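hey so i finaly got around to running the thing on Asparaginase from Komagataeibacter melaceti. pasting the sequence first so u can double check i didnt mess up the copy paste, my clipboard has been acting weird all day
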Amino acid sequence: MNRPIIAIIATGGTIARQAMDPRDTVDYGEMGTSLGGSDLLNALPADVRARFEVRGMTFSDCDSVKMTLPDWFALAELVSQTVAAQPDLAGVVITHGTSSLEETACFLDLVLDVPCPVVIVGAQRPASAISADGPANLYAALLVASAPESVGRGVLVVANNEIHAAQEVTKAATYQLETFRSPDFGPLGMVEANRVFFGRGAGYRRHVGWPRGYVAGGDIPRVDICYSHVGADGVAIQAFVAAGARGLVSAGMLPGLCTPAENAAFDAAVAAGVVVVQASSGYSGGVVRRHELCQRGILAAGHMRPRQARILLILALMAGLDKDAIQALFDMP
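ok and heres what it spat out for the 3d tokens, dont ask me to read them lol
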């Protein structure tokens, strides 16, 4: 029987952390130790490991809050090079910290163009914890990465036996195992009884591709997120523009509204050539480009949450897209 060949790229995070106390699910990040990719695999039973031929490599060993945009480009390049050099791969699994996992997944989905599935997986509890979820999540990710049904679905996020589309998923709980959710459309599928099931297709995929001309260390446009609240005076917006922001994402009050002072600051930013995108700080639901936004030259984020909208706007600016083309990307469901 031919075993599926899976490349595992380790980037650190909770799934690769170990505490001194098995009850510790909080302080391990500062007081624990790190595990290597081979240690993660060895946590699986031998008969489970025997189902796959794994080729492991380490990209980084850090908490996911330390990830940067240049790191994302380097990771995307590593995935592309790995797949190109190993055409026999059935899929790629990336282990990642959960804090910024949804952002990394969105970025990779927007830029990668590889023929095999790419699955990102993390854990809510360190490897040393009682009922650690890392081994089960890793096993599910290996199953999804090796499933023929996963091909052509873009980057996938696997956690708690659920399969999510990279641009739809968000981390919703701080410590609970069922943290990753797709609030508007639900999971794409599940892993059940050692089998992979897809219940729906994404039906679309926003894709920008690798920004033409970008090389490591090259210019990445600054795009900031402005969180709206009662009494917000627009000072933060003005500061971001003064710092050189080429784009701003407004995490507005639902359904995508800001204070009068913020609106004035955003209008001044648009007049100065800054691309402004109106998103919502809510858990679910989209922001449509209503008449007022059109009149003011502000784009609408649709169903993309602020952090994902920021990533799309950065890549769109790097690709040289005009505002109509950027809005067309946000208009996808």
